[in-house]
Amino acid sequence: MIDSAIAVRGLRKSYGKTEVLKGVDLEVRPGEIFALLGSNGAGKTTTIKILATLLRPDDGTAFVSDFDVAKSPHEVRRSISLTGQFTAVDEMLSGRENLHMMARLRHLRDPRGVAAELLERFGLTEAADRRAAAYSGGMKRRLDLAMSLVGKPSVIFLDEPTAGLDPQARLEVWDMVRELAKGGTTVFLTTQYLEEAEKLADRVAILHGGRIIADAPLSELRRMFPPARVEYVEKQPTLEEIFLHITAREAGRKEAV
User: Fold this and answer.
1) What is the pLDDT of residue 246?
2) Residue among 19, 76, 75 at smallest CA distance from 49
3) In this structure, are strands 80-83 and 67-68 parallel, antiparallel, or unpaired?
4) Secondary structure element (H or E) that encloses residue 144, with its range
5) Does the pLDDT at position 1 exceed 50?
6) How distant, in Å, are the alpha carbons of 41, 219, 244 from that of 237?
7) Which of these, 207, 137, 206, lies nearest to 170 by C-alpha position?
8) Mean pLDDT of 121-148
9) Which of 67, 70, 173, 222 sits at a 20 to 30 Å CA gap from 166?
């Protein structure tokens, strides 16, 4: 386990007669952005819940930050943070108050200082004293990520972090995730957006049929794809590229006026 932020061997979990995880093996290195992909019901969220000590496995072992999730759950919880599909932001509080509350729950010495530092880091200083209910979706997600970093966890789990966000907000979250990894945080990501994994992940694993069927950097996974036939065609922009281009052009027009 020495060189692993997360190490899983033979993980199994069933719900009644339905076996969801059938012997999952995976390893995540420190400071890595690791993406776990799979169709709905494949067991991605179940895997994260086990690693975050929210669910006990039926069999197998799982270590996070060198702590056994079954034998040392309190130590695991101190070293991790979990951001789910829906933000944990209290919309009745301001951004500053949300961070201050989280710092107090973590029993940190200087909650106000911690809140101020994270507000600046995530570009929320100007909106710090506004109620979170008035934040855009992207701002709420940034605040949610900031709250996840209170206490400086070594591992952060992001379960569908951009679900429901517009394209611009997704890009903002991607930038934040990259910054987390640059700072040494290990990021374990699940997503339904394959482009998201392609843009962010150092390594990608595919969970299918209760097992990991592929686990490698994207460059290696591409070699598993049949060779493409070479054709010379005009590249068509994606709808996302068109959307971002048009909105950026309109923003430029307003600034010019």
Assistant:
1) 64
2) 76
3) unpaired
4) helix 137-148
5) no
6) 32, 23, 11
7) 137
8) 91
9) 222
